[in-house]
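Pilot study result, target chain (556 residues):
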Amino acid sequence: MKTDIQIAQEAVMEPIQSVAGKLGIPDEALEQYGKYKAKISEDYLNGLKDKEDGKLILVTAINPTPAGEGKTTISIGLADAFSQLGKKVVLALREPSLGPCFGLKGGAAGGGYAQLVPMEDLNLHFTGDFHAITSANNLLAAMIDNHLHSGNALGIDPTRIVWKRCMDMNDRALRNITVGLGGKINGPVREDHFVITAASEIMAIFCLADDMADLKKRLSRIVVAYNYAGEPVTAGELNAVGAMCALLRDAMQPNLMQTIEHTPAFVHGGPFANIAHGCNSVRATRTALKLGDYVITEAGFGADLGAEKFLDIKCRQAGLHPAAAVIVASIQALKYNGGVQKADLKTENTEALKKGIVNLGKHIENLRKYGVPIVVALNSFITDTEAESAIVEQFCKDHDCEFSRATVWADGGKGGIDLAKKVLATLENKQSNYHPIYDLDMPLEEKVRTIAKEIYGADDAEFSAAAKKSLRVLQEQGFGSLPICVAKTQYSLSDDQHKLGRPTNYNITVRDAYVSAGAGFVVVLTGEIIQMPGLPRRAAAEGIDVDDDGVISGLF
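Predicted structure:
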């Protein structure tokens, strides 16, 4: 069996001008990065504002196994199927982070014959967006320490600096560090931290900003520290915004790629959904909506994370109205939620499947609370049995939910035709009455409790003393009207990754909270979630190589 990278390397790509031409984008609007990827010029983007929007389709999923279960693959295959049916369709997806590429989960180019190409470019440096975001983040960090070193005119309390450095790699050794060692010339000694770039506030701001003017406003609002009086100090007060925008200017333009079947795809921004809000950029989504009759986008990890944040944060801030949602499930992930060990997931186990399928049921219930019509897509693996597939199909029928078995990994767009037809029928016959799950005028604690009870199925949320104080102070400082971004494990509906299936009789534990004022949400940290992942015992990086001709292998 061919690997993903072998399939991608054998694909015959069209010049990016041809892909752009399918959407009516002229050659002069392209800023090319080689033959097969390009950014779209600012002038062209500005000229799209008066065009009507297409229909927005969200692809989300059940809680995954540690390997992920093919949400991006289904998104790509569904788009290719739409294209085969003669529909003008555009993808709007996230960029991969290098951390997972070299760690455990892998990249974000899809898989099999439902991939974005060139996949090596996408999964590695791509067009440099992540590097620009990392540089802007760390410039701000450097300016904070330089301000302290140069007299501290703003009265920043060095023990209350909340801005963290970042890098786009899993490196647990950088989670907690000490800076300023080596004498006065190197600045004051203080504790510092790193987060992975995909979890940084700059990434969230980048993905939620409307344009350069909005980007400047958001960057200026970033709370970097507190002064000795306990008042917030912002990036705007440090005069850091102009230089940060200079680093981010080119990155702000959406990237255009293609699938193996030459369907256009805007790939832009990449926040993690277990820590940040998990959606591609607003700019890319809006551009796709102006250029396509149908736009297929995805939100990271399970629907309890990515979809909740897409619907409660991104759609609310950007004024988006999803017309339908696809919930991706796999038999392997359902059996994992039924207690089967990862090594045994390929073996038929109908009892474990019946036990774990309650996880799918909860996600169906959750999305219905937002008023969005649903189709369930079973991402079919060659190890699935007919008995197992029949159980999932019957479960969906019992829950009055459309079901489709998709074979896009093996068959590309052809394997998603049934799914595409059912999504199209849903769009035609069912009205979306999208609405967020909570009101912004609710107190911060009540918003957290609403998400915990309604989406996670918890009895309540328990707040540590630190979390209670943080939320109270944020409320007093005027941040109480912001939405909530929950940082939580992706493997469980709860905050404990070992509670699989559909946990009951438990509370979510909130250990702390902080404001991402530029992004426009309050982050609450639950359970043992961390913002800088580590590499696994056997990292994927150990199997990656380049031959004498420069051909990469082992990248999935």
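One observation from the pilot: Residues 129-149 form the longest helix (21 residues). A full batch analysis is planned for the follow-on phase.
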